[in-house]
Design brief:
- It is a single chain.
- It is built from 3 helices and 12 strands.
- By secondary structure, it is α+β, with helices and mostly antiparallel strands.
- A hairpin with a 7-residue loop joins strand 7 (about 135) and strand 8 (about 145).
- It folds into 2 domains: about 1-45; about 50-190, Electron Transport, Fmn-binding Protein, Chain A (Pnp Oxidase, Chain A, Roll).
Length: about 200
Amino acid sequence: MHSYQFFSRIFISLGYVQCNKIYLAKTFMTLQENTESDLREDFLAGMRFVANSVTVVTTDGKAGISGATVSAFSSVSADPPMVLVCLNADSSTLDKIKENKDFCVNVLPEGAKHIAERFAGFHDAEFPNRFDGIDFTDSKGPSPVISGATAFICQLDESVVSGSHVICLGKVIETHAGNFMPLIYMDRKFKRISDVEG
């Protein structure tokens, strides 16, 4: 065998191996993307069956007034009293909370579905100002407190980016306890709480 034939075969073999490596790498990336996509869908499907109270987070101050419907809300600490809410990183309400340094978490009563939908942006064409016609209660802070809601008036303590959202930690400076059962959201529907018998 001539030397050029020998080296040609080596180069062909090396090219074949390289092509296989590229093919395997692309296949692995596709499988990884599919796995991540499946995990996301499984996660969202699971979260559909996690019941959450429906809250409207409001803020007011030098950056202006704003509000948004939020389901990711939790207590953090009683000593000192602290809560957290999670807002999408693209939220205009989040931008105003960061600048105003205060916010109010309004846990809506069960009869306030229309308020939840309005602050979720469902009726922005009809109500460009989401606060029009909504009743509010006086408080120590500048952020609007929705009448009938259980409200936690907060000063922004810290904001932490996590995935697609930003976690806002708030020091509670005042609490208003509502007189009604809270509105619940689960399985993409608004629901009421009922007692379990037995």
